[in-house]
Design a protein that fits this description.
The complex is a heterodimer.
Chain A: E1 3-8, E2 11-16, H1 21-27, E3 51-52, E4 61-62, E5 73-74, H2 79-95, H3 103-111, E6 159-161, H4 171-176, E7 186-189, E8 196-199, H5 215-219, E9 225-227, H6 228-235, E10 245-250, E11 259-265, E12 268-273, H7 287-291, H8 306-313
Parallel strand pairs in A: 1-5
Antiparallel strand pairs in A: 1-2, 3-4, 6-9, 7-8, 10-11, 11-12
Chain B: E1 19-23, H1 27-30, H2 32-43, E2 47-51, E3 64-66, H3 73-86, H4 92-98, E4 99-100, H5 102-109, H6 114-121, H7 125-137, E5 141-145, H8 147-150, H9 155-169, E6 178-181, H10 188-193, E7 200-201, E8 205-206, H11 210-220, H12 232-241, E9 246-250, H13 254-257, H14 261-269, E10 273-278, H15 283-286, E11 290-293, E12 303-306, E13 311-315, H16 328-338, H17 348-358, H18 367-372, E14 376-377, E15 405-406, E16 425-430, E17 455-457, H19 459-465, E18 472-477, E19 481-488, E20 496-500, E21 529-535
Parallel strand pairs in B: 1-2, 1-5, 2-3, 4-15, 5-6, 9-10, 10-11, 16-20, 17-19
Antiparallel strand pairs in B: 7-8, 12-13, 13-14, 16-21, 17-20, 18-19, 18-21
Helix pairs in contact in B: 3-6, 3-7, 3-9, 6-7
Classes of the chains: A alpha+beta, B alpha/beta.
Chain lengths: 323, 537
């Protein structure tokens, strides 16, 4: 197919038909910030941090999903683009716990001069976010920053949901749905500021359609969805990525040959991921591949390490989540 | 297939194919990431036919579910073939060019009218007709199968019946079309490729072929036994007759995984000497005279495994094995040394490089390339060879550079364990999403999905028997009996019951199963047991 030529920030670039503006930016080495975009998911265009300015368009356009056109002129760094991106980051950072986002996101926020504190101190958490229906949310008086804070949901042995960290990027919904798992256990409930990721009728995961593949954890950019093992180790102050090795191997179960990256700390597997750029898994696994590794590290009482003691807490189905 | 022991397609091909026959496979639970690829195909417009006695979670995604009688797969395949031929939808050019034995095959399926096929399989004739027409008329089509095809007394004929359909329609050797057996274990493909079969040398080369054998003898400086050995079912028979008195079991749990398991345990106990090499103290290891504690192949050692798309991939050591456990290579090398055959303690890569020197299919797969290219699909003949996306493309080359692919007549025979007045219920077995085989591995983690093994029955059967959900019943086959709670499962038709195999310590379903096995593959008929269900007083 013929290539399409466009200009990004004044530099010409040719990319194949069907490529997005983001693809063209990457060809030029001009990566754009993204939150809801991932190579293995269909873009849902919700986060708006990848927006760019294209003359002739009324609004800024999402670079992750807008196909290139011949002769298009793209501006990725205009005042309007910078301002829009800054506001998105600021609003998110003022209401959501972003302490576990990746370094790139932090770098973009610094670059755009984000100052989430200017919205005032955080408002008191509300207890009923999961019960709210459209129209429930009332505007504050402007003296405090609204918050999505709510207690961590710990309702099973394998993973937790900390929606205080959720930016509603939809990645988990897509991975649970058509883009990978086709299970549809979660969706966005509520409207406006009360929108949140929810199971049907807000049931616990064990009563929902969830099959515990953990593919939602694999795509979550903020740590809102987390291995129970990582959660417990963080609570105990023992999660130490500097002390972890990551080793690529193949799952020990069925014959599909899924690539696993074993995250190991103190000779114990503490997390399992899969490379997004591998043709077999595209980063997705099933419950056995992601969680079925305990049999190589349940070694009886003789060999229990401090890390084992914490990991054992992660094997209790339900636990008071206030800690 | 056609002399090559591997699936013909790559996973990516199912994403753009037009018709998928998912035959005897609950891939959504047993091979979930393959099912992701399959679902991409469905999303892209492929028509999915699920052929399975149970309306599984995979079948729920199908355009059409064919809930055939257990063990009637050949009847269905032969009927489909006859319909294709009768309707003139077979690929005459391909058949003439690339196959042999068509006329005899066509004659053999001639009795399989839609009406007869319908009677034997229990499927509506119109549904069989539609499958036949859709499959034959498709531009690209795949047949994917697993143990629902192979765990039968006539497993090999079941597979041949499916291969016949691909030859009949030219759905093999082209991108998007092919035959796709999805392997049940992470290295069952690699094990066979590496010669862990009684009739094969490493590289899937024939033991009984002097030329192949000669290569190994030259390198090893030692004669290689010139006769094929025994597969597992034959070994059990030889243990019964006393021909085999010592057994060395590596990473297998036959005390629980074999059909008619109490008999298998009896045979294992009767051995003079049993050595078990395993990562855990399995029920088989408990019977052993000597246990070699082994390291877990996928997380505690280096090596390779081969997937269902013939992709050889590296496994790597991420953990130190516990205690005195050593990797299989070190144990076998140590054993050789004590037997006076010191060949040193080679690394996994050194062993692999020797294999590459002997197996043309793997010659190009250096450890460096396997790492850099995310694995390679055999055949891969040299360091410049990119590996092979799909097999048997040469069936379309003109002139044909190989022997034509043969049709085989596949006569249908019902399951050995016949239903009768005393044993009126058909019990079949299988896997669940979160568990695996006898549970040695998967039992180690806490799964929120896991439920106790139960006898799953159609609700109407339970009503007939007067048993409630959760009530314990006795399940009796011609070989044994066990007690299990009843669970209702609306995916089952009346007359069909299901048990998973994952918790033999609690419910040993293989007390019931029959050890009738396929003479060609040695696989027992786990999928078809005749039972009756008795309330427990």
């Amino acid at each position: 197919m013929a290539d399409i030529t466009l200009a990004v920030d004044g530099t010409e670039v040719s990319v194949p038909v069907g490529a997005t503006i983001l693809d063209a930016c990457r060809v030029l080495g001009k990566d754009q910030p993204t939150l809801c975009y991932l190579d293995n998911l269909t873009p849902v265009n919700v986060c708006r941090v990848c927006v760019v300015e294209v003359p002739g368009n009324r609004t800024l356009v999402p670079s992750c999903s807008r196909p290139v056109e011949e002769g298009m002129e793209v501006n990725t760094d205009s005042e309007r683009v910078r301002h829009s991106r800054k506001m998105v980051y600021e609003f998110l950072a003022s209401s959501v716990d972003l302490s576990l986002v990746d370094e790139e996101t932090v770098d973009w926020m610094v670059r755009y001069g984000c100052d989430p504190d200017r919205y005032g101190p955080q408002a008191d958490p509300v207890e009923d976010r999961d019960q709210r229906v459209a129209g429930h949310h009332h505007l504050g008086d402007g003296s405090t920053a609204e918050t999505v804070h709510q207690p961590v949901k710990v309702d099973n042995e394998l993973y937790i949901r900390d929606y205080s960290r959720c930016i509603l990027c939809y990645k988990c919904v897509e991975a649970c749905g058509e883009d990978a798992q086709n299970t549809f256990a979660i969706a966005v409930a509520g409207r406006g500021f009360d929108a949140r990721i929810s199971t049907e009728f807000d049931t616990g995961l064990t009563d929902s359609a969830c099959v515990f593949c953990g593919n939602c954890i694999g795509v979550c950019p903020t740590g809102a969805l987390m291995f129970r093992s990582e959660h417990e180790l963080r609570l105990a102050g023992m999660w130490d990525e500097d002390d972890q090795t990551v080793t690529r191997t193949i799952c020990s179960y069925c014959g599909v040959g899924c690539n696993l990256d074993l995250h190991v700390q103190d000779n114990r597997i503490v997390k399992v991921t899969s490379p997004m750029d591998h043709s077999v898994t595209s980063g997705h696994l099933c419950i056995k591949g992601r969680f079925g590794y305990e049999y190589v590290q349940e070694l009886g009482d003789l060999a229990v390490t401090p890390i084992d003691q914490v990991l054992r807490r992660a094997r209790v189905p339900d636990r008071d989540s206030s800690g | 297939m056609f002399g090559v022991g591997g699936g013909t397609c790559s996973y990516q091909e199912i994403e753009t194919t037009d018709v998928i026959l998912l035959w005897g496979s609950n891939a959504r639970e047993a091979h979930p990431i393959f099912f992701h690829h399959l679902m991409k195909g469905v999303r892209n417009g492929a028509k999915l036919y699920a052929i399975d006695p149970r309306r599984t979670t995979s079948a729920m995604w199908a355009d059409t579910w064919l809930g055939l009688e257990v063990g009637s797969d050949i009847a269905l395949a032969n009927t489909v073939a006859r319909e294709i031929i009768t309707a003139g939808l077979h690929h005459e050019d391909f058949i003439r060019h690339a196959t042999r034995g068509f006329d005899a095959y066509a004659e053999s399926v001639e009795p399989w009218t839609l009406q007869r096929g319908s009677e034997i399989t229990g499927l509506p004739a119109e549904v069989i007709r539609r499958l036949a027409h859709d499959f034959a008329a498709a531009d690209q089509a795949q047949i994917c199968w697993t143990l629902g095809i192979t765990e039968h007394h006539n497993a090999t004929d079941n597979v041949l019946a499916l291969i016949n359909l691909a030859l009949l329609t030219g759905h093999v050797g082209r991108y998007g079309s092919g035959l796709v057996p999805i392997r049940g274990q992470n290295n069952v493909q690699g094990g066979g490729d590496m010669g862990a079969l009684p009739n094969r040398l490493p590289g899937f080369q024939e033991v009984e072929d002097p030329v192949s054998r000669g290569k190994f003898e030259a390198l090893w400086g030692h004669p290689v036994p010139y006769q094929a050995g025994k597969h597992l079912s034959l070994m059990l028979e030889a243990m019964e007759t006393g021909e085999i008195t010592a057994l060395y079991v590596i990473g297998e749990n036959p005390a629980q995984s074999e059909a008619r398991s109490d008999h298998a345990r009896h045979l294992l106990r009767g051995l003079e000497f049993l050595v078990v090499q395993d990562i855990l103290m399995t029920k088989t290891a408990e019977l052993a005279d000597v246990v070699f504690p082994a390291a877990a192949g996928w997380a505690e050692t280096d090596g390779t495994v081969t997937s269902s798309e013939r992709r050889v991939q590296r496994v790597r050591k991420a953990l130190d094995p516990p205690g005195d456990a050593r990797d299989d290579l070190a144990i076998i090398s140590g054993l050789a040394e004590r037997m006076g055959r010191g060949w040193g303690y080679p690394t996994a890569e050194e062993v692999w490089d020797e294999l590459r020197s002997l197996s043309p299919n793997h010659a190009g797969m250096s450890y460096r390339r396997l790492a850099e290219e995310g694995g390679l699909q055999w055949p891969c003949y040299d360091e410049e060879h990119p590996g092979t996306l799909f097999l048997h493309g040469d069936l379309w080359d003109d002139p044909l550079p190989r022997h034509p692919a043969p049709f085989f007549s596949t006569p249908w025979a019902p399951p050995v364990d016949e239903l009768s007045e005393d044993f009126p219920i058909r019990l079949t077995t299988g896997r669940r999403l979160d568990s695996y085989n006898t549970g040695v591995q998967s039992g180690g983690y806490s799964s929120p999905l896991r439920t106790a093994v139960a006898l799953e029955v159609a609700p109407s059967d339970a009503h007939t028997l007067g048993v409630a959900e959760g009530e314990t019943v006795r399940v009796v086959s011609r070989r044994g009996s066990l007690k299990a709670p009843v669970r209702f499962d609306r995916s089952l038709r009346p007359g069909l019951a299901f048990m998973s195999v994952h918790d033999p310590d609690e419910v040993d379903v293989n007390l019931l199963t029959i050890d009738a096995w396929d003479p060609k593959s040695g696989t027992a008929e786990f999928k078809a047991t005749a039972v009756r269900i008795e309330p427990v007083g």
